[in-house]
Amino acid sequence: MHADPIGVLTGAHFIDGDHACSEGAIAAGCRFVAGYPITPSTEVVERIADRFPFVGGVFIQMEDEIASSIAIQGAVWGGKKAMTVTSGPGFSLMMEHIGLAAMTETPCVFVDVQRAGPSTGLPTMPAQGDMMQARWGSHGDYQIIAIAPNSPQECFDLTIHAFNLSERYRVPVMMMMDECVGHMIERVVIPAAEKIEVHNRKVYEGPKENYLPFEAGRDLVPMMVKAGDGYRIHVTGLTHDEKGYPNMSVSAQGKLVQRLMDKIRLHADDIIKYEEENIEGADIVVVTYGITSRTAIPAIEQARAKGLKVGHLRLIVCWPFPEKRIRELAGRVKSIVVPELNMGQMVYEVERCAAGKCNIVSVPHAGGTVHQPKDILAAIEKSIRGK
Amino acid sequence: MPRTEIKIGGFGGQGVILSGYILGRAASIFDNKNATMIQAFGPEARGSATSAQLIISDEPITYPYIVAPNVMVLMSQEAYSKFSPELAPGGMLLTEEDLVATHNLRSDVKHYSIPATRFAEELGKRLVLNIVMLGFATAITNIVGREAARNAVKVSVPKGTEELNFAAFEKGYEYGLKLLKGEPEKVLA
Predict the structure, then answer these.
(1) Which domain holds residue B162?
(2) Which domain holds residue A313?
(3) Does residue B187 belong to any structural domain of this protein?
(4) Of B21, B38, B62, which has the smallest distance from its Cβ to A184's Cβ?
(5) CA dihedral of A149, B39, A112, A173, whole degrees rounded to 10
(6) Shortest alpha-carbon distance between residue A111 and chain B (Å)
(7) Residue B154 belongs to a domain with what CATH number?
(8) What percentage of chain B has pLDDT greater than the value 70?
(9) pTM, two decimal places
(10) pLDDT tens digits for range A129-179
(11) Contact B55, B22 (CB under 8 A)
(12) Do the Cβ atoms of B63 and A298 come within 8 Å?
């Protein structure tokens, strides 16, 4: 399906990442946003509030992030595409309902424009400190998808992608932006509506008496209906059976949680997305995501100019993590260098997959600004010293 | 054009951010270049010396922050004291003549000034000082073309004020050309 032209501002714009995210959401068909504005994500909802009246959308400024993250799920079960927008402190409050969205298989998008934490931290300055929280922040076992854009253009493109993935797999999808990308102003080209691919959830239209809202076919993703269509549905955060009714048995728990995990694992190769440069023949690979992928490039270029064989792997989708690719690279390179605007988070995933097969060097940064390329260069050089 | 870093500074309310935005928009939308703009977001953006940071390049822009600006456009004394030491060696400094006294200016800096506030007042609106500065910077630096800059002004200023802003832009542009005696200066990058 293509985007509804009513929401698509085709043309070249000079806008920031936050506004590009809003436009991506609108182009993807999002028509309900609830949020509690917080720096540095405020511009996303500001633009949504400004634009929604013209596209038939509803924006509600809620009393807090807890309410925002549950309001969007009500809208989704009412048939809309919906998202909420926040930064670290609000993201922490949303954790409970990220689990609810995972458990009830409610397709929705959570935008986190990351700032330096913990707690209130540095409201106007960038970090990438919520990467593990995005994956593990809610209790219990579940899977999510997380995406890290590195430019305003990608804030547009990948927000559409986030909605498409959430609709296809019925999972909460996190847009892991950061203050730098969110407030950076660059050219954003919005294509014509018919060039924008939009996916919608599979809708059940069969006989009412046979409908089992949580029965999945081979792709493990159940079909949805919306409240008011006349189908019997029951949506609960309690462990439930195919009917959606609470079922407090070990077998129902095992079956449901296994499927919630497997539906992402089964499709991981389709979901995982990364970009590689100069990987063939590399001795060192720098693994980056989000804004760090840009600050690493001058360092990689300087290292290559010094004769080091350095490749670059940029995660576009961070969760699910490209385990197979990292495992394979670790078996043939000398080192993997992981700069992040946190004290070391995704580097744990790299270490886990590398399983001791090569040297792993973390380049931590507490946030507040971006890495200096010279620090990444020093880590690249250090990573193969004595090897 | 290689990576060129530009910092525009002044006090809140002078249209510092807007002039940076228009310059970036001129480069990236109307002049086939890449532009990345970062603006001050902290409390410094509300009252004291504020700034817009802009990178313009023919190449993709990787590192998003400016390191040592090649060009600086300053519209207040505080901005001069705070920012001018950051200028790259051989950098270019453009100042508002009546608002900035350029004490202790490094000898390697190429300096140009314009009485932009007076020109803006002559046009009837002091508010367009930033667009006078923009026209001046366009002429002196040649970072973006005159047409690209004019196009960007047109789509960035409030509807109904286009003519006033064009007049302001041309005032600054012509003054810049006159200073250069028609010879555009090369920006070091």
Answers:
(1) 4-180
(2) 275-383
(3) no
(4) B38
(5) -30
(6) 20
(7) 3.40.920.10
(8) 92
(9) 0.96
(10) 999 999 999 999 999 999 999 999 999 999 999 999 999 999 999 999 999
(11) no
(12) yes
